[in-house]
Each structure stands twice: as structure tokens, then as C-alpha cells.
Design goal:
Elements lengths: L13 E6 L5 E2 L5 E2 L2 E8 L9 E5 L25 E2 L4 E2 L4 E5 L14 E2 L4 E2 L9 H14 L5 E7 L1 H12 L4 E7 L7 H15 L17 H15 L2 H7 L18 H13 L5 H13 L10 H5 L3 E7 L7 H13 L4 E6 L13 H12 L13
Helix pairs in contact: 1-2, 3-4, 3-7, 4-6
């Protein structure tokens, strides 16, 4: 660990069983899970009246390890730029909860877990999930930790979708929802990107109809291709050009079909590195949840939050073409039409969708200001670009 590191230091991932045969989890689709284990981390200290808790919802391939270091880590947690002492989510002030999603593969129950009924990995027998199912499990973890109401729920990308769903379904649980680089309804292009990624996995000869764990194989080719393609969508043209341009991968090489350009080497590395930390089945299930997410489709979607308003911060990045500013504005329009207090800000960044993970001072300062504001904005609609 570098001597100049200004974060949390060593953190620990814990696990808890939140649902069991006596208290099973009933999913939105009607299926039931008799056991749900969740991996989570906490940072900071819960105050006496349990009023300073902030819940972190992770993106598609995130996990519970949002900040600090694990022994042997080469890098800190995935949102260490955001969370820590004196940072945007200040752990000297807030008690921060970060968990791995239901359906994930980093300690929480998912399709790669053992099905108690068969003693074998679930595979494609695992039930389909809904964004609301994630929220149900998050709420169970909050109750387990003794938190009565959250100061805020914060998420980027798919994490922002969870924050939005939580605020609409259970507005009494939170004071602020921070929704960053997210969408309330994926575009056809977004669904298409996810569809191709899933097809790459399913068509891999080692997928074995989802039974690859039992047969001791792995659809690594398909999963790495899915990750490579996804990474293209997470970065802007400007970002790729600035970082790689047309630089060659090697000082000398003959033209051919190998890795000749630096950008090809980068994508290959991202695909290979992904194989050590993510499961192909989780990729299938979680991307499908995003495809079906459309919380404003119900006429009554805003009824609960109208009755018990949540303060919103919605943010986008001007170079993000995967979850564009227009998709954030759509969320803002729906919330503002319901006369809910909402702040919107578009941040300049050349790095595309991945900007929400980076140290961009105006972005981090805005999150910090909203979380720490003492003013009560309920009943006021305010925005800025």
C-alpha cells in the first residue's frame, strides 16, 4: 500500500444469512429462495440514533468491496474515490453499508451457488430476478444492522437503478436518493449490447446449458468477449483516442490478425482479468434484470414517494453514450412532474460511462454537498446543469 494513501486502510468482507427455510425470500416473479446469503462491508461508525447510514448499491460487475484494501489487493475497492475519510461520502461522518447483489458471485447467493434442494450449483434453474428483489434483500441487510432509516442510498449505473427503485417502492426508508449515470428504461441499443454479450457466453462450447460448474468447465471465451465488448461501451471515443489512438501494441510486428494495436491489448487484458473475478451465469442474470427495468411504466409508480418525498440528486456525464444525459433527464422529468425535490447536474468528462468511478472533482463535490446539506428541500424542485 502506498504511503500516501488517504483512504480507509484494510477493510473486511462479512457474510450473513438473511433468509432461510423458516423465513424464505419470495421473489417478484413468484419463485422462492429458501436460503439467501449476502456479502457486505461497512465503513465508519453508526451513531447512537442510527441516523447516519448511507447504503451503496453497486453496478453490474461490482461487489461488496467498495472502499479500502483487502490483504493482497493491488488496488483499493471499486469506489474508493468516493468513500473514505473526508471524501464525498465521508466515513468520519457516515456509516456506510456496501453489499454484493443477490444473483452476484462475490459472496452473495446467485446462480453459481449450491441449490439446497439438489446439492448442485443452481445454474439456469436459478429464478429470474427483478430490481425490486435486490431492494428487498438490501432492506433485510439494513434491518439486520439495526438501521431504522437511511440518510441516503447512492448508486452508479445499475446501482443508480436500485436507488431509484428503492426510493419509489419504500420512500420511508431513505432521505436522499443519489442516482448517477443511470437509466429508468434501457434503450434498444443498450439491450442489444447486453444481448450480444449473453449470446457470446451461451454459445461458448463450454457453457454446457449452464451446467459448466458441475462439469468442471468454464465458458471463458464467451465471458471474456462479453467483457471486451462492454468495455468499449464504457469509454468514449475521446477517451479511447486520448489513451490509445493508433499506438501499436509492440515496437515491431508484422501485419496480421493478432494484437497489433494498443487498444486491442487493453481489451484483451480486460477480458482476461474479468475471468478471475466474475461468473458467466451472474452476467446473464444481472444484465437481464437491467433489460426489464422500467419502474415508471406503472401508473401508480410515483404514488408512494409523492406521499413521503425523497430528495433526489441525478447526475450524468456529457461523454457517456451508454447511459446518456438524456436518460438521466428522463428520470428528472418524471420526478419533477411529480413535484419532488430533484437536483440534476451534468458533469464534463472525456471518459464516458466509467466516469462515475473516477476522481472528477466537480462530480465528487456535488455528491458531498448534497449529502451534507442541512437545508430541507422537500417540496422544492431545483435543478442545474
Amino acid at each position: 500500500m502506498a504511503a500516501t494513501y488517504d483512504g480507509l486502510g484494510v477493510t473486511e468482507t462479512k457474510k450473513v444469512t438473511l433468509f432461510d427455510p423458516a423465513h424464505p425470500l419470495t421473489l417478484v416473479g413468484g419463485d422462492q429462495l429458501d436460503e439467501v446469503v449476502v456479502a457486505y462491508e461497512t465503513y465508519g461508525t453508526l451513531n447512537e440514533d442510527a441516523s447516519n447510514a448511507v447504503y451503496i448499491c453497486h453496478a453490474l460487475t461490482g461487489d461488496a468491496h467498495a472502499a479500502g484494501w483487502h490483504p493482497g489487493d493491488k488496488h483499493p475497492g471499486w469506489w474508493d474515490t468516493m468513500i473514505g475519510p473526508g471524501k464525498a461520502i465521508d466515513t468520519n461522518r457516515w456509516f456506510v453499508i456496501s453489499s454484493n447483489l443477490l444473483g452476484g458471485c462475490q459472496g452473495s447467493t446467485g446462480p453459481g451457488s449450491i441449490n439446497p434442494a439438489t446439492g448442485k450449483p443452481w445454474g439456469l434453474d436459478f429464478p429470474l430476478l427483478d430490481m425490486s428483489d435486490f431492494v428487498t434483500v438490501h432492506r433485510a441487510l439494513v434491518a439486520h444492522l439495526g438501521v431504522r432509516k437511511l440518510h441516503a442510498v447512492v448508486g452508479g449505473s445499475m446501482g443508480g437503478m436500485q436507488a431509484l427503485q428503492w426510493s419509489l417502492s419504500y420512500p420511508q426508508d431513505l432521505g436522499i436518493a443519489v442516482i448517477i449515470a443511470a437509466s429508468s428504461r434501457l434503450t434498444a441499443q443498450n439491450i442489444a449490447f447486453s444481448a450480444v454479450g449473453r449470446e457470446a457466453i451461451i454459445r461458448d462450447e463450454n457453457f454446457r446449458d449452464g451446467r459448466f460448474c458441475e462439469q468442471e468447465t468454464r465458458p471463458d471465451v464467451g465471458l471474456s468477449i462479453a467483457r471486451m465488448m462492454a468495455h468499449i461501451t464504457y469509454t468514449s471515443e475521446e477517451g479511447f483516442q486520448a489513451k490509445f489512438g493508433r499506438k501499436p501494441q509492440h515496437k515491431e510486428s508484422a501485419p496480421g490478425f493478432g494484437v497489433d494495436f494498443a487498444v486491442e491489448g487493453y481489451l484483451e487484458h480486460q477480458g482476461e482479468a474479468f475471468l478471475t473475478r466474475f461468473d458467466a451465469l451472474s452476467y446473464l442474470y444481472l444484465t437481464r434484470v437491467m433489460d426489464y427495468f422500467d419502474p415508471f411504466a406503472e401508473p401508480s409508480a410515483l404514488d408512494a414517494v409523492r406521499a413521503d418525498p425523497v430528495r433526489y440528486l441525478v447526475m450524468s456525464f456529457d461523454s457517456d453514450w451508454r447511459f446518456s444525459t438524456e436518460q438521466s433527464r428522463r428520470i428528472v422529468r418524471r420526478l419533477a412532474a411529480a413535484e419532488l425535490p430533484v437536483t440534476f447536474r451534468e458533469i464534463h468528462s472525456p471518459w464516458g460511462h466509467d466516469s462515475f468511478l473516477l476522481k472528477i472533482d466537480p462530480y465528487l463535490a456535488t455528491v458531498k454537498a448534497v449529502l451534507e446539506a442541512d437545508t430541507d428541500y422537500r417540496g422544492t424542485v431545483w435543478s442545474r446543469t
